[in-house]
Structures are given as structure tokens and as C-alpha cells.
Amino acid sequence: MKILAIESSCDETAVAIVEDGHVLSSLVSSQIDIHKKYGGVVPEIASRKHLEIVDRLVLQAMEETDLTLEEIDIFAATMGPGLVGSLLIGLSVAKGLAISLNRPFIGVNHLYGHVYANLISYPELRQPFIVLLVSGGHTEILLMEEWNTVEMVGKTRDDAAGEAFDKISRLLGLGYPGGPEIEKAARGGSPIYSFPRPLQEKGNYDFSFSGLKTSVLYFLQRNPGVSVEDVAASAQEAIVDSLVTKTFDAAQNLAVDKIAFAGGVAANFLLRERAIEMASKRGIRVFFPPIDMCTDNAAMIAVAAYEKAKRRLYSPLSTNAVPYLSLDVF
Ligand code: ATP
Ligand code: MG
Ligand code: FE
């Protein structure tokens, strides 16, 4: 079964073709350079840019795979959460293709896309497992017992982990997105400063990252000329330590022996290293998406759509963009 999926929830336009869960083509065009000068994503510009490039990406994916549109069995697109104008571009293109070629259409929850990106590297992964969803907008520990439902175990009370990386990167005068920049800077430094790891009481699976950001800000004000690399390494250590400790405690407490990492922050090398270390100590298996499929992409949307397609769960053509789509609905 060949699925063509489009992702356009934020500032990446992405198109992928996946056959039975196997990625044939995955193209991502980022608008980061365009939004950079405004200090954030400008929704109106984002949707226009999606519209400008999406056709070209579809054609490029067809060329790369040597397939024709008639050979695609299902068209899928992210239906939320995200920027409404941006979501509508991918949705409209996928629905238009489905109508004209008389094929089913499947709308996908972007967050389930991040979770199912794990199947690209581990097709054998089966529920139940714990998910640490760590992206630009989400930081949640989830228990996934069924293929299409998750139960919230813990979540951030303020900033998401990716947001913390982005904000601390800005404080350090590093670029955007902050995660990869901090990771790179940290390689040249040592985690010699101790930044807060809040909510450490046993059994508390919530996170808080806004205090860390403030504490880095004050530290920089008090210590002008301090090594950016050492501060980056110390901040990264604090974020990763909180994430890994709580996720493994939650898994152990719920007697679940598998943890899947999802979202942009799951690309972080230190997070992977610490998780693998702790996994071998505690007899838990850990799973990660391919590094380049942790941040937004369409392959993860196609793989998630495949889970629905296998069960013949197609979406009506009246499917609308849902900017605040929650994890309650796949
Ligand atoms: P959401 O999926 O919650 O709607 P999003 O789509 O913007 O948000 P993603 O694309 O999943 O988020 O992830 C982007 C975030 O991941 C950014 O905050 C970025 O800094 C972070 N990130 C990317 N790579 C790394 C890395 N190597 N280390 C740490 N953080 C990273
Ligand atoms: Mg993005
Ligand atoms: Fe995302």
C-alpha cells in the first residue's frame, strides 16, 4: 500500500511516499530562514510559502520514486495541531488529489505522527509502551496502551523542552532552532554549572523548564564573559537529566518495559546516550525515530496514516484543520 502524505502544520513543508511503512521518499523544505528575521513564525507568510512550494515537492517525490500519481493508493495530510492557514494548504492538496484520483483520504494528528516515527526505525514496536513526547510545543510522558489512544502520565507545567532549548539558545546568543545549536556548543564545553531540576519529588511526572531559563539568564548577568559552551553543556544536562529520570521512573512505576522517544528533542545526542545508559541499567528497551525524522516531516505522517489505513479508517473529505487538536483524537 503506497501512501503519499503532506505535512504543513508549521514552518516546514514536507511530502513523503511510504509503502507498507517503508519510506520511499521524504522531502522537507524549511522556511526557517524566512521567519528568522521576524524572530518567530509569521502565520500569513508560512501559509503562502507552503502554497508556493507544495506542488513542486509532490512532483519531486514522484520523480524520486519513479511512481505516477495513479500508483498512489491513499493520500494523507496533517489535520492538526498547528497553524490553521498552514494546515489548510496540505489538507487541501491531499484532499484534491484524493478526489481527482478517486482514492481515500486520511487526516492525521501531527502528535501521533511524531510517536509513530518510531515505527520507521522499529517496525516491530508494539503497545503498550511509554512515550516521551518532546517537541517545540509539547513535553509529555504518555502511556500508549492501544494503537490510537494515549493516557497522560505527566506534562510540562510551563515551557516545552524544545522551547527551553530555543529560549536558552537565544540567551546565549546562539541561533534558531536552539536544540541543535546548544547541542553543538555543548560539545566544546563541560556541564560544570548546576542548573535547577524542579519537581523532583518521587511520583511527580510533571516538568517545569521556565525556572531553568530564568536561572540561566541570571547566571549570565552575574557572570559576564563565562564560557557559552560550558553554560550550553550545563543547561542541556539539566534538561536531559529531568526528562530521562522522570520518564524512566514513570515506566518503572507503571511496570512498562518499553520507552519510545518522539518529537524534535528526541534528536538530541545526550538524551539518546543517557536513555540508552539508563535502559541497560533498568532492563527497559528504548526506541528512537531516525535522527532526521524527529523534527517535522511527512514520512511520520504517512506511517501514522498507514496505521489507520490498515484498519480502513479513512477520513471524510469534510475533514477540517483543527489548530488545537489534542491527543484525545488520533
Ligand atoms: P509540535 O510538534 O509540538 O507542534 P514542532 O513541530 O515545532 O512542535 P518539532 O519539529 O517536533 O516541534 O521539534 C522542534 C523542536 O525540537 C525545536 O524546539 C528544536 O529546538 C528542538 N530540537 C531539534 N533538534 C534538537 C536537538 N538535536 N536537541 C535538542 N532539541 C532539538
Ligand atoms: Mg519547525
Ligand atoms: Fe512537530
TrEMBL record:
Chief subcellular location: cytoplasm
Listed Pfam families: TsaD
Keywords: Acyltransferase, Cytoplasm, Iron, Metal-binding, Transferase, tRNA processing
GO MF, any single term: tRNA N(6)-L-threonylcarbamoyladenine synthase activity
Free-text cofactor note: Binds 1 Fe(2+) ion per subunit.
Keyword field contains Methyltransferase: no
Cofactor: Fe(2+)
Subcellular location: Cytoplasm
Catalytic activity: L-threonylcarbamoyladenylate + adenosine(37) in tRNA = N(6)-L-threonylcarbamoyladenosine(37) in tRNA + AMP + H(+)
Entry's Gene Ontology cellular component terms: cytoplasm
GO terms (BP aspect): tRNA threonylcarbamoyladenosine modification
Lineage top rank: taxon: Bacteria
Signal sequence bounds: none
EC number(s) given by UniProt: 2.3.1.234
EC class: transferase
Residues that bind Fe cation: H110, H114, D296
Xref: HAMAP family: TsaD (MF_01445)
PANTHER family: TRNA N6-ADENOSINE THREONYLCARBAMOYLTRANSFERASE, TRNA N6-ADENOSINE THREONYLCARBAMOYLTRANSFERASE, MITOCHONDRIAL
Family: Belongs to the KAE1 / TsaD family.
Role of this protein: Required for the formation of a threonylcarbamoyl group on adenosine at position 37 (t(6)A37) in tRNAs that read codons beginning with adenine. Is involved in the transfer of the threonylcarbamoyl moiety of threonylcarbamoyl-AMP (TC-AMP) to the N6 group of A37, together with TsaE and TsaB. TsaD likely plays a direct catalytic role in this reaction.
Protein name stated in the entry: tRNA N6-adenosine threonylcarbamoyltransferase
Originating organism: Mesotoga infera
Gene expressing this chain: tsaD
